Amino acid sequence: MNAEGGFDRLIYERVRLGIMSALAMNDELTFNELKALFNASDGNLGAHARKLEEAGYVECTKSFEARRPKTIYRITGIGRKALLRYLEHIEAVIKATRRA
Amino acid sequence: MQSDFPIPIETRALGTLAYIRRSIDSSASMAVPGMAGIVMGVVGLLASVLSSFPHWAAHWPRIWMCAGGVASLVGSALMAREAAQSGHARYLGPVRKFMLCLCPALFAGGVLTVVLWRAHLEGLLPGTWLLLYGCAVLSASTVTIASTMRLLCTMGALFVTLGLFAFVLPAASHMAILGLGFGVLHVVFGYLVGNSDHAA
Questions:
Q1: Where are the alpha helices (DSSP H) in chain B?
Q2: Per the count of CB atoms within 10 A, which of A90, B99, B127, B188 is most buried?
């Protein structure tokens, strides 16, 4: 698991955090939809998505639609928990700094 | 170039939260182009002017129905263009939700138009159109991006209010109320939505 003392460095990166947040709100999103959302190149998005997939945070299904490859991403249970943990961590940071 | 001043951890955390919110918002919401509202409003104003001419006054339901058809087509075309320009042409999730929220009230409006017209109750048409269009806009506003949601929600509520007024005010005021709603409200809120798009 990519967590260090409760702080998940895998999700910390902007594009990966965006992918996780978008997938948490949608049942599934295609590669092209994510690319349009984050204005990312194929290579950049593919690399980030692969890292999330390797960590078990998202699952990927590849198929063909009208003879064109279609890649669909979904968030996994582990991914959803990791995102919630990350949000709780940020919330705790904000509360702690406001108390100080 | 990096700043020499350290960024407070709270600012960074709030920035991250804002980024998460933006990601969720843009993946689950739809952007409505302000220009669509302005053009639809101009069509509404033209219909209002045409139906106020004594020679055409008797045909006001037909004029307004034609205007409704034209405004729907132009509005849809402008929304499709906006989706294509923003690279979201393949991204149909929010569009589907937007249409699902918009269509039931519009369908009810269409059915009631036929029923009231056949029953020779044309005097109830302006109130019905404004009320149901307002309900459609109110409902659809919930799936639009945060910067326009409040504006569209307010516009929907104003349409509903005008619809209620149309039911109680005399028929002589109906063309003015329709012009105020489908003309002026569309233009004003189209302009405000357009400005909020640029500000976002």
A1: 9-28, 34-52, 60-85, 93-118, 125-141, 146-168, 174-178, 186-199
A2: B127
Cα–Cα distance for residue pair B78/B75, rounded to 1 Å:
5
Closest by Cβ to B10, choosing from A26, A32, A98: A98
Rounded to an integer, what distance in angstroms lies between the CA atom of residue A71 and that of residue B103?
Answer: 31
> How distant is the Cα of A30 from the closest Cα of chain B, in angstroms?
9
State in Å, rounded, how far the first CA of chain A is from the last one.
Answer: 31
Contact status of A92 with chain B (Cβ, < 8 Å): no
**Do the Cβ atoms of B23 and A87 come within 8 Å?**
no
Tell me which residue of A10, A55, A68, A60 sits closest to A34, measured CA to CA. A60
Tens of pLDDT, residues B95-127: 778 888 999 999 999 999 999 999 999 999 999
Q: What is the pLDDT of residue B87?
A: 53
With beta carbons less than 8 A apart as the criterion, state whether B91 and A36 touch: yes
Q: Does the pTM exceed 0.95? A: no
Cβ A21–B17 below 8 Å, yes or no?
A: no
In what helix (H) or strand (E) does residue A64 lie, and over which residues does it extend? strand A58-65
